[in-house]
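Q: Structure tokens for this one, please.
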Amino acid sequence: MKRSLVLSVQSFDVLAPAARAAEKAGLDRVWVTETPGRDVITRAVHVARETETIAVGTGIAYAFTRHPIAMASAAIEAGAASGHRITFSIGAGPVPIRKALGIEFDHPAARLAEYIAYVRTALDATSGLHFHGRFYSADLAAFTNPNAATHPAGIYGSGLNPMALAAVAAVADGITLHPLALYRRYFDDVVLPAVTPAEGTAPKLACWCVASVDADREKARGKARTRLAQYLSNKSFSGVFADSPWAADVAALQAESERQDWARAGRLIPDDLLDTLAVAGPLDEVADRITALKRDLSARNVDELALQMAAMGGTHAEILEEISTLADALA
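A: Here is the predicted structure, written as tokens:
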């Protein structure tokens, strides 16, 4: 199973040294992220240029802020700049951000699948781009990808609900799975059936997992709770836990999270839910949990485990130390 780190940090300056630490530890990939004020494609190219061999992924590149031809053009140029080490994972983006920006991305599952198909068509174009779908259309006779013969590192999609997963699985090389997909009953009953085709090759699965390492066990678990609280507060994900033992806990957290005090909301996450969705504690405990998690996910046809640093702030040195420790735990 491939091992990777998710560099979901605000600081741009920490990206290069963090990626080099992951590369030195022998990890397979680093993923970079975006949010308003942070551009994932710029970050991916920067990380690739500052490393030698490690693969880089955009996790995720928002579709709703970029026309498909802009995404395809960025993938072409980023591939050329990185020696074709960048995998583009594309997603519809968080509903709260879309609402805050007043951007409509209607029929998100079907639209995202068509968007990815459009990007793939553009990347393979050698004598014009011709694409006609429900949401997007293009007739660019002069368009060509000069690097079409050198296929990019892959186009992934993202999703969590069954409709989105099934739509993306039909057109993408792989899927980046949200950390909440680690609820095993949901993984087995919803995720796997949605991404397993009746015929043909199934997409690769990269499963993200919130992780925190600290000699102080409760401090590590507190940071993981805070990160998870942000995810669990999103009401569009409520269906994941609708029939779970934690349905009432998630509902209480969502009510509390209206204050946007994530540490406070995170305290409502029970220990067993935390241990289902994250690995957090001292290094030896986390290393053992990672070993068990890799075995568990391998049995579910997961191709890659990506640890996402739980800490949501800190100094440059503190962030680097946490990332280096997680790289060591994976290695």
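A few notes: The chain has one domain: 2-330. The two ends are 12 Å apart (CA to CA).
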